[in-house]
Automatic annotation (TrEMBL):
It comes from Candidatus Taenaricola geysiri. Residues 204-207 are annotated as: Aspartate. InterPro entries: Aa-tRNA-synt_II, aa-tRNA-synth_II, aa-tRNA-synth_II/BPL/LPL, Asp-tRNA-ligase_1, Asp-tRNA-ligase_1_N, Asp/Asn-tRNA-synth_IIb, AspRS_core, GAD-like_sf. The keyword Magnesium does not apply. L-aspartate binds at residues 180, 226, 453, 494. Its main location: cytoplasm. CDD domains: AspRS_core, EcAspRS_like_N. GO terms for cellular component: cytoplasm. Keywords: Aminoacyl-tRNA synthetase, ATP-binding, Cytoplasm, Ligase, Nucleotide-binding, Protein biosynthesis. This is Aspartate--tRNA(Asp/Asn) ligase. Its EC number is 6.1.1.23. It catalyses: tRNA(Asx) + L-aspartate + ATP = L-aspartyl-tRNA(Asx) + AMP + diphosphate. It is found in: Cytoplasm.
Length: 595
């Protein structure tokens, strides 16, 4: 029987029609002479009714035997007539809820073994079990809707970029190992024993070469690979919407990106995003929120009180400032009722991010209530009130120490309080651009400069002269797009001058032989008339996770890896026969136990 309709298609307008449906038996209910089955496919559910007495009341033995044997997740094909559901039994929550199909023919296309878990979004099951049986997990409507949203987002991005004149061009998956901030996945070459390909961390160099080649508008929904420690928003293989343009600047890239996101959110969620997105400099973002990816759905901004409180009698503050540190605080408005154990929990939370302690003050009608209030005179308390807009009933929290630790611990504390206090609205998306990043960050362990983004990011034109004597003061033409506290896209205007590109490599301590071995082909390409160019790469997995309010990007990838980089479904990574290793010229030096 070839299906004529899907299980989410029929409505009361189809009453009286003959139909053929195919799908899975989602649930089965036996009411004596009637058997009801919810038939499911990815489009929805249709209730089918099997009358065991047959049309006209005669006993229908074949239909009876088939219907009695049906169990959960059997694949069925049914033919019958669309009828209205009896009054009072309608289900207004689904498209097909006003009809049912009276079955005249029924076929079990395939049986199913007993399931390891139910096909229900309300069932709580372990992630390992779900991923091991992903072929069943993917039948869950909740997961299917996320993957279908992913499809709509990709289509909206493609359609938008196509209309803007962008060409979709694929770049290699087997490429050269080049340092881009994470470990490469290496692939041994059988034809060149002892040598390796690398899987691309991004299409960075190839998309720049496409600009050099005259393709002025490129995009690709690109697979990327990074061998790094995993967490909820990381996977060893991930996808980004890769975009690059020639003869462009930041304003054009912002405009194109905002237009694409408007179309994505309209097609995906039916939401109208307000553009242009607000902008913050890196310095402003860290100053106000402690992070370069602030969640701006709520306030609770940080205040720097270093100069104001360094004269306090409180030794910890004074010593921190004398050691080159800073003092910052935030106002947990209305939280003066927090108990000591609750405040201790906040202190322990801040300690995870390096904070040596958490100073606190409850604002009462009589002044500041705190074990350390005596070290702060009325003038200093007045300053704290003013800078943090404090009022009676508020709880003021402070951290002192190295700027990085102070900012990160307070930023994380702010996010925690935002959730605990219900300051974050559901289904709200607040975008902002973060711009004017520093070009370099200092690596204390290795005593050298690292690139803040990547070594192909252009410095601000007015800062090129600083590179020789003071590279740490140079700004970059990099920018991030942040939504709800998550970096959703990163990009920059690129270096198109080969001499400047070599200088950046030299500043990060790459030798001339290393530059030639790793990037010689790219430097040569830049030497043959490279246009000015730049781009951006929104992370598709992270975007879909945000749009679906998923806790992990694993929920929006069809076949994800675990946090240990394993695939429970297939058993990858796995051993390979010694014969294959011999062909590749590889010998295992010892057996490493799998965890």
């Amino acid at each position: 029987m070839k299906r004529t309709h899907t299980c989410g298609q029929l409505t009361k307008n189809d009453i009286g029609k003959e139909t053929t449906l195919c799908g899975w038996a989602h649930s089965r209910r036996d009411h004596g002479g009637l058997i009801f089955i919810d038939l499911r496919d990815r489009y929805g559910i249709t209730q089918i009714v099997i009358n065991l007495q047959g049309v006209g009341g005669e006993h229908c033995s074949p239909l009876h035997q088939i219907a009695e044997s049906i169990r959960s997740e059997y694949v069925l094909a049914v033919r019958g007539k669309v009828e209205p559901r009896p009054a009072g039994t309608e289900n207004k929550k689904i498209t097909t809820g006003e009809i049912e199909v009276a079955v005249s023919e029924l076929q079990i296309v395939n049986a199913s073994k007993a399931l390891p878990f139910e096909i229900s979004e309300y069932v709580t099951i372990s992630e390992d079990t779900r991923l091991e049986n992903r072929f069943i997990d993917l039948r869950r409507p909740e997961i299917q809707q996320k993957l279908l949203l992913r499809h709509r987002v990709c289509k909206a991005a493609r359609d938008f970029l196509d209309k803007k004149g962008f060409a979709e061009i694929e770049t290699p998956v087997l490429t050269k190992s080049t340092p881009e901030g994470a470990r490469d996945f290496l692939v041994p070459s059988r034809l060149s024993p002892g040598e390796f390909y690398a899987l691309p961390q991004s299409p960075q160099l190839f998309k720049q070469i496409l600009m050099i080649s005259g393709f002025d508008k490129y995009f690709q929904i690109a697979k990327c690979f990074r061998d790094e420690d995993l967490r909820a928003d990381r996977q060893p293989e991930f996808t980004q919407i890769d975009i690059e343009m020639s003869f462009t600047d930041e304003e054009e890239i912002f405009s194109v990106t905002e237009g694409m996101f408007k179309d994505i959110f309209k097609a995906g969620l039916g939401l109208d995003l307000k553009t242009p997105f607000p902008r913050l400099s890196y310095k402003e973002a860290v100053g106000r929120f402690g992070t370069d990816k602030p969640d701006m759905r709520f306030g609770m901004e940080l205040a720097d009180l270093t100069d104001d409180l360094k004269s306090a009698e409180f030794k910890i503050f004074k010593q921190a400032v004398e050691a080159g540190g800073i003092i910052k605080g935030l106002n947990a408005s209305g939280c003066a009722g927090y108990s000591r154990p609750q405040i201790d929990n906040l202190t322990s939370f801040a300690a995870v991010y390096g904070a040596a302690g958490l100073a606190w003050f409850k604002v009462t009608k009589d002044g500041f209530d705190s074990p350390i209030a005596k070290f702060f005179n009325s003038d200093l308390q007045a300053v704290m009130r003013k800078k943090l807009s404090a009022k009676e009933g508020d709880l003021l929290l402070f951290v002192c120490g190295k700027p990085k630790i102070v900012n990160e611990s307070l930023a994380q504390l702010r996010n925690l309080l935002g959730k605990e206090l219900g300051l974050i609205k559901k289904n709200e998306f607040v975008f902002e651009w973060v711009t004017d990043f520093p070009l370099f960050k200092y690596n204390d362990e290795e005593k050298r400069w690292d690139c803040e983004h990547h070594p192909f990011t252009a410095p601000k034109e007015e800062d090129v002269s600083k590179l020789d004597k003071d590279p740490g003061s140079a700004g970059s033409r990099a920018y991030d797009l942040v939504v709800n506290g998550s970096e959703i896209a990163s990009g920059s205007i690129r270096i198109h001058d080969p001499k400047l590109q070599k200088k950046i490599f030299e500043i990060i301590k790459m030798t001339e032989p290393e530059i030639e071995a790793r990037f010689g082909f790219f430097i040569r390409a830049l030497s043959y008339g490279a246009p000015p160019h730049g781009g951006i790469a929104p992370g598709l997995d992270r975007l879909i996770a945000l749009m679906t309010d998923s806790e992990s990007i694993r929920d929006v990838i069809a076949f994800p890896k675990t946090q240990k980089g394993a695939c429970p479904l297939t058993g990858a990574p796995s051993d390979v026969p010694d014969k294959q290793l011999k062909e590749l010229g590889i010998k295992k030096i010892n057996e490493v136990p799998r965890h």
